[in-house]
Amino acid sequence: MADEAIHDHCGIVGIFDPTNQLDVPRYLVIAMTALQHRGQESAGVALLLPGTGEIVPKTGMGRVRDVFPQGTDDLPKTCCGIGHVRYSTTGSSCVENAAPFVLRPGRKMIDDAVAIAHNGNVVNASELRAEITDIAFQSDTDSEVIAALLLRAGGESFAHRLRQAAHRLRGAYSLVLLAEGKLYGLRDPYGMRPLSLGRLGDGWILASETCAFDRVGATFVRELAPGELVTIDEQGCRTETFLRRARRGLCVFEFVYFSDATSVLDGRNVYQVREELGRQLAREYPAEADMVVPVPLTAIPMALGYAEQTGLAFAEPVIASRYADRSFIKPDQRLRRLEIDLKFNIVQSKIEGKRIVLVEDSIVRGNTLQILIKALRRKGASEVHMRVAAPPIKHPCYFGIDIPDEDELIASHRSVDAVAQYIGADSLGYLSLAGLGRATGGGAGDTDHAAEGILRHRFCFGCMDERGYPFPVREDANRLPSDVR
């Protein structure tokens, strides 16, 4: 059974402490752990050695706890460092592709070592890589392509070279970099991937999500604007806009699924937006039922919103198994025949004879839901009405989200009734594009046209509607390596 989850590309963090009072490596690792949901294949840090300009990396495969099992006592003390957690959508899953990437001194146009950590996907990476014939690439990631552009760029300062390189990039990228004894943060001109700025004592922190600030006791200052570059050093934090687009393109799945529920994104609390997604879903697709049940864990606030709007009881009889890990638990054929999904436990006494509204954040292939609904019926549920707090996913993502090809997406080639039949639900309702627009930026009273207009102005939702990509990508995508498409 194929994994149903959608994965983000990675999470990034950078810290600069001018007082040298903070244990920067330790704070980086704590912040990376808070971002672990964004990437679990590899992790690493790059630390600036004071007074030398040298950068020391430590990277490895696995989660943060696997790469730093003994903590950070073996890492050098520093005032500045960056960290990265990765899920591979460009480049294979191997240690050579683990980030941050470090460029050594003595290379063309670079006086000091440079380290880079990247969240996103550059759709013209293959085209750019083909242009660069004088550099031997050590990995097959688009992050190293960005690094190579920096090596070849001209200009008196690193910030100038960074702006010049960014103008060549097409796609999604939030970056944190170390160079010239400074910390840099950069967000692409559409703002497709998130990046926020915070204060950490007298220092500064950049991170993909504000949940990382909470974990280390930092104060959220603001989100970087699309096309914004920040430079942080002993003199403080300076900002400039290197490129601006008429529309924005934050990935709407940051609200639906990717971001931690405690984070603040686009000026709104993610948990509250997910509750509103549930309320909008209830307005569009109510059901005669006895209780509202979430599929753990992201859909819990959505189910709460649905229950609040309808007045139905909320219950959690489907419980995520705390220790299940498909990487080493492989059900044998007998367990498969029994249709046991090791991800969930079900409280039978809560659902026997009950009509259930089952709320989920999205449907990708439908396999997990098919097994879960069968298990609910086997435990005694009389009806299962499926409600999904996002529109159907019909198209792949080219910007760093692991959404598969269209032929693997159940909604791309089946009607709503056919999907309901496949997963075994008595009925199925997806949130509309207008409902998504109302929940993420508009209001309950907005017309469908106005709500969809908000969506088109502020978000990328091309996986749901090809008109939702911030710019045409099919031509660029055809040049991507096969493991990315």
What is the name of the CATH superfamily of the largest domain? Aminohydrolase, N-terminal nucleophile (Ntn) domain
Gap between N and C termini: 21 Å
The best one-word shape is globular
Order of strands, main sheet, comes to: 3-2-4-1-10-9-11
Taken together, the total number of domains comes to 2
Catalogue the unreliable spans: 89-94, 326-330, 476-485
Q: Short summary of the structure?
A:
The protein has 485 residues and is of the alpha+beta class.
Commentary on this structure:
The chain contains 16 helices and 24 strands. It is an alpha+beta fold. It has two domains: 10-249, Aminohydrolase, N-terminal nucleophile (Ntn) domain (Glutamine Phosphoribosylpyrophosphate, subunit 1, domain 1, 4-Layer Sandwich); 270-321 and 339-469, Rossmann fold. A seven-stranded antiparallel sheet has the order 3-2-4-1-10-9-11. Strands 5-6-7-8-12-13 form a six-stranded antiparallel sheet. Strands 18-17-21-22-23 form a five-stranded parallel sheet, with helices on both faces. Helix 3 (125-131) crosses helix 4 (142-152), helix 8 (270-284) packs across helix 9 and helix 14 crosses helix 15. The chain is globular.
Keywords:
Glutamine Phosphoribosylpyrophosphate, subunit 1, domain 1; 485 residues; seven-stranded antiparallel sheet; six-stranded antiparallel sheet; Rossmann fold; disordered C terminus; alpha+beta
Q: How are the SSEs ordered, and which strands pair?
A:
Elements: E1 10-16, H1 24-34, E2 42-48, E3 55-61, H2 64-67, E4 80-86, E5 101-103, E6 114-122, H3 125-131, H4 142-152, H5 158-166, E7 171-179, E8 182-187, E9 196-200, E10 203-207, H6 211-216, E11 219-223, E12 228-233, E13 236-241, E14 250-251, H7 253-258, E15 264-265, E16 268-269, H8 270-284, E17 291-294, H9 300-310, E18 313-314, E19 318-320, H10 333-337, E20 344-346, H11 348-351, E21 355-360, H12 367-378, E22 383-388, H13 416-423, E23 427-430, H14 433-440, H15 448-458, E24 459-460, H16 474-477
Parallel strand pairs: 14-24, 17-18, 17-21, 21-22, 22-23
Antiparallel strand pairs: 1-4, 1-10, 2-3, 2-4, 5-6, 6-7, 7-8, 8-12, 9-10, 9-11, 12-13, 15-16, 19-20
Helix pairs in contact: 3-4, 4-5, 8-9, 8-14, 14-15
